[in-house]
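quick one: heme C bound model?
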Amino acid sequence: MLRSFLIIVGLFASLAFSSASAAPFNEGFRKCGECHEAEVEVWKQTKHAKSYNEVHKKEEAAKILAAVGGPNNMRQNPTCVTCHYTETKASESAKPQVATGPSCESCHGASSEWREIHNNYGDGIKDASKEAPAHKAKRIADATKAGMIWSFMTYDVASNCMSCHGLAQSKISGDTLDKMLDAGHPGEPEFELVRNSQGTVRHRFYPPNVNVNAEMTPAELSRLFIVGQAAALVSATGAVAKATHPKYVALQKKREQDARAALQGVADVPEVKALLAAPSHEAGRKLADALKGKDLSAKVKLPAKSTYK
Ligand code: HEC
Ligand code: HEC
Ligand code: HEC
Ligand code: HEC
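yep, here:
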C-alpha cells in the first residue's frame, strides 16, 4: 500500500518536472522592440497594427458578431480575438490582455518559452560571428521546439498566414466559420503570399546591411510564390475535407483550384508533383527545402509590384 502510494507520488513528481515548460504565451511587441526597433517601425505602418483602432468600427462587424454569438465586443469575443488581436500576458500568472492587432508573435510564435533562447550566442558571447556552429544549431533547434517560427521556415510562415487568412482556422468550429461567411466576413480566396508579404509587411533587415529593408530578388520571389501556393493548397484541402456548408465548400474549392492552377508551371518539380497528389504540411515543408537556392521565376507568374499590399 505505502509502496504503491510512493510510486504514485514519484510519478506525479516526475510528471511535474517533465512538464516544466509551461504553455507558451504572447509577451507583446514592446518586448521585441527592445532589440528589434526597425521591425516595430515597419509593423506600425501595417494594417495588422492599424486595424486595432479600426476594424470594430466597420459596419459589417456588428452583423458578424451577432451571427457568431458571444460577447458583442470584438476585443472580448474569443472567436474574433483568435485572428484579429494579440492576447498578451506579462507573466504566466498574469491576466491576459488584448491591446494590439496581429503582431510579431502572431507570425513568429508566442515567445514566452523561446525569447531567451533565440538570441543567446553562448556564455559571454555578444558577437554572432563568434558563436560556435554547434551552439547555433542547438539554439535554432531549441527555439523552434519552444515554438519560434524563424524567417527561414518559409512553409511554416506561409501556413501560419493561412491560419488567419482564408477562413480555415482549425481552432474555430466549422459551424462558426460558416456563420461568419454567411454574415459577410471576407473569405479571401485571392490571398497570395508575395503580394501580401512584400508590400507594407516586408521587413528584411539582414546582415551585412542591417539598416536596409531589402527587397527580394526574382529568384527569392519565385520560391516564396510557390511556397505560398503550397500552403494555400494544404489549408484549402484540409478545410474542405471537414466542410458541408455549400458556400464554405465553394470558397475552399476555389482556393484549392487557384493554388493548383498556379503550381502548374512547376508541376515537373518532383516535390510539387508529390504535393499536388497528396497535399500535407510534410509535403509542403519538403517542397520548401527542395527549392532552396533555385530560381523558378521564368516558370511562375509573379504578381506585379504595383499590386503589392
Ligand atoms: C534582447 C534582445 C532581443 C529581444 C528582446 C528579441 N530579440 Fe529577436 N533577435 C535578437 C538577436 C540578437 C537576433 C539574431 C540572432 C541570430 O543571429 O540568429 C534575433 C533574431 C530574431 C529573429 C530571426 C531572424 C532570422 O534571421 O530568422 C526573429 C524572427 C526574431 N528575433 C523575433 C523576435 C521577436 C518576435 C521578439 C519578441 C517576442 C524578439 N525577437 C525579441 C535579439 C532580440
Ligand atoms: C479565421 C480568422 C478570423 C476570424 C476568426 C475572424 N476574422 Fe475577421 N478578418 C480576418 C482577416 C484575415 C480579415 C482581412 C480580410 C481582408 O483583408 O480581406 C478580416 C476582416 C474582417 C472585417 C473587414 C475589415 C475591413 O478592413 O474591411 C471585419 C468587419 C471582420 N473581419 C470582423 C470579424 C469579427 C466581428 C469576428 C469575430 C466574430 C472576426 N472577424 C473573426 C480573419 C478573421
Ligand atoms: C505578418 C507576419 C509577420 C509579422 C506581424 C511580423 N513578422 Fe517578422 N517576419 C515575417 C516574415 C515572413 C519574415 C521573413 C522575411 C524574409 O526573410 O523574407 C520575417 C522576418 C523577421 C526577422 C528577420 C529579418 C529582419 O528584419 O531582421 C525579424 C528579426 C523579425 N521578423 C522580427 C519581427 C518583429 C520584432 C515583429 C513585430 C514588430 C515582426 N517580426 C512581425 C513575418 C512577420
Ligand atoms: C493572427 C492572424 C493573422 C496572421 C497570422 C496573419 N494575418 Fe494578415 N491580417 C489579419 C487580419 C485580422 C487582417 C485584417 C485587418 C483588418 O482588415 O482590419 C490582416 C490583414 C493583412 C493585410 C492587409 C490586407 C489589405 O487588404 O490591406 C496583409 C497584407 C496581411 N494581413 C498579410 C499577412 C501575411 C503575409 C501573413 C503571414 C506572413 C499574415 N498576414 C498573417 C490576421 C492575420
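The radius of gyration is 22 Å.
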